[in-house]
């Protein structure tokens, strides 16, 4: 069972509520933006960051206006601090976002969710999740936008190895051995995905962001695999000022407008 309430303005439906997930065995928050049916040309899974939640994009950017401009139905799920991973001692959030949620969307809404019209985007932790989705299932997505992402989990673990609370959280996600398996190694996923058609990829990070070196490293790796990605950087930190601009530029680079 799911329950949503919302508002309508200038032909846009803005819905918020709870989705009862079988994969998670609980209800979880979900926010939805739906443009007018005759102006709907694609669907976007829009992912939040580590310290945020499913409502962030609506509260802190003009995503509703951008959705209307591009004719996108936007679905913003809640995954807590799971890193969009099927946790070892927790909930299967990757299965929820990659399998259950798209299937539910297809069954409940008349929105295009085929590989030519499905997109994924996210910031920070959500940028990792967006690339994980697109590189794990490159045949399902038309495009991916990864904004100021944390891309190398091993590096984060090494930086935080002496912080006990952080280690407990990561053990819940990865297991007691804290091993980052190939399913969570974006470089390995990219190498496998490069053997076939790959979605259009947009990668952006602010030059003053502490995660900037990771974006440069991933840019170079993807290009070494022959992927035609759009990479952009400009002065900016890890903030909504940067992400509001970056999502606009990402949509421009990745989404095909249909009139």
Q: How is this structure best described in words?
A:
- This protein has about 260 residues and is α/β, with parallel strands linked by helices.
- The chain has one domain (about 1-255): Rossmann fold, CATH 3.40.50.1820.
- The protein is built from nine helices and nine strands.
- The protein has a nine-stranded mixed beta sheet, sandwiched between helices.
- Strand 8, helix 8 and strand 9 form a beta-alpha-beta unit.
- The N and C termini lie far apart (about 35 Å).
Brief descriptors of the model:
single chain; 259 residues; alpha/beta; Rossmann fold
Major beta sheet summary = 9 strands, mixed
By secondary-structure content and strand pairing, the structural class works out as alpha/beta
What is the CATH fold-level name?
Rossmann fold
Q: Classify the beta-strand content into a percent band.
A: 15-25%
**Which range best describes the helical content: under 10%, 10-25%, 25-40%, 40-55%, 55-70% or over 70%?**
25-40%
Helical run tally: 9
CATH superfamily: Alpha/Beta hydrolase fold, catalytic domain
Number of domains: 1
What would CATH call the architecture? 3-Layer(aba) Sandwich
Side-by-side strand order of the widest sheet: 1-2-3-5-4-6-7-8-9
């Amino acid at each position: 069972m799911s329950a949503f309430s919302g508002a309508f303005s200038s032909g846009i439906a803005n819905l918020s509520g709870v989705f009862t997930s079988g994969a998670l065995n609980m209800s979880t928050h979900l926010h939805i933006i739906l443009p007018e049916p005759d102006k709907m040309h694609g669907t976007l899974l829009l992912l939040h960051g580590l310290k945020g939640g499913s409502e962030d994009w609506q509260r802190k950017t003009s995503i509703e206006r951008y959705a209307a401009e591009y004719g996108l139905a936007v679905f913003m799920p809640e995954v807590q601090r799971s890193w969009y991973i099927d946790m070892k001692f927790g909930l299967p959030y990757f299965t929820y976002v990659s399998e259950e949620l798209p299937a539910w969307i297809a069954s409940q809404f008349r929105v295009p969710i085929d590989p030519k019209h499905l997109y994924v985007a996210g910031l920070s932790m959500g940028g990792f999740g967006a690339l994980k989705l697109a590189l794990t299932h490159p045949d399902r997505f038309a495009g991916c936008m990864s904004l100021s992402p944390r891309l190398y989990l091993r590096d984060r673990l090494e930086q935080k190895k002496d912080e006990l609370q952080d280690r407990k959280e990561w053990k819940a996600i990865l297991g007691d051995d804290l091993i980052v398996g190939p399913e969570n190694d974006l470089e390995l996923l990219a190498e496998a995905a490069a053997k076939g058609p790959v979605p259009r990829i947009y990668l952006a990070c602010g030059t003053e962001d502490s995660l900037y070196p990771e974006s440069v490293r991933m840019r170079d790796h993807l290009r070494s695999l022959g992927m035609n990605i759009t990479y952009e950087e400009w002065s900016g930190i890890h903030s909504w000022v940067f992400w509001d601009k970056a999502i606009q530029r990402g949509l421009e680079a990745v989404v095909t407008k249909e009139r």
